[in-house]
Design a protein that fits this description.
Blueprint: H1 3-22, H2 40-48, H3 51-54, E1 59-62, E2 65-69, H4 73-93, E3 107-109, H5 116-135, E4 145-154, E5 161-164, E6 170-177, E7 180-182, E8 185-190, E9 207-209, E10 215-220, E11 223-227, E12 230-243, H6 245-250
Amino acid sequence: MTREYEAYCEMQREYRNFVQHNYIPLNNHLYTLNEDIFVPSFLQAIQVNTPEALQPILHEEHPGIYSFDILKPEFCNQLLEEVMWFEEWCVKQQVTIQRPNSMNNYGAILDDFGFDSFLNRLMTEYISPLSTLLFNDVGGDSLDEHHGFVVEYKMGKDESLDFHSDDSDVTFNVCLGREFTDGKIYFNGLLCRMCQQSSFLSTHEYVEITHKVGRALLHRGLHRHGANEITSGERYNLILWCRSNQYRLQDNSGECPEWCDSKRK
């Protein structure tokens, strides 16, 4: 670890500590995960937690890309209200809003203002059963670290998202609302880390998926994707980048895995 990175991490810790000690939430109850935020079909399947119970709630949009209903609309709306309340607080207090990543210019990192415990439990108790079933080849069965944030797409702001892969092993992406048209998410090619920088575009895969409020997408972080332009309204997504340190320590063979699409040229 370089001195520059250590200094950056210390700065991030100080920022988060300041925010969490001074920010007053709009809805305190949101910060503790309560199972009533989930739609009944999802909750029942997770409670049973067998392949036979989990498979029926999953829709395979395309090989390696799954969707399922998870969050009730009421919670989606309340979470959006909390994010907007936080952003207003930052403006009033002249506090810089840390944006989610290098590509999204709007939105907020949920961990910064108190959602760390909520998101960790969401990952370990509710996403992990599905990622264990679907993605244990990339650490889906040993997720232990996350980066959680909300992104915003709106005319005059971010209207689309360029083609990319995520800094995650498994990505959870759920639409929070609100009214919008277009802005579909598209996928084209699953490449291992060794092949990510290649110009390879899949000839056997191009799939577009329409966002629906409360419905999640689950896929490998390395599954390359982007978002088409939104043409009206505004759309918000809750995204959780889930990582497995155990998998990442093991993933150093230097060999291209069988699931990498570059093998299918």
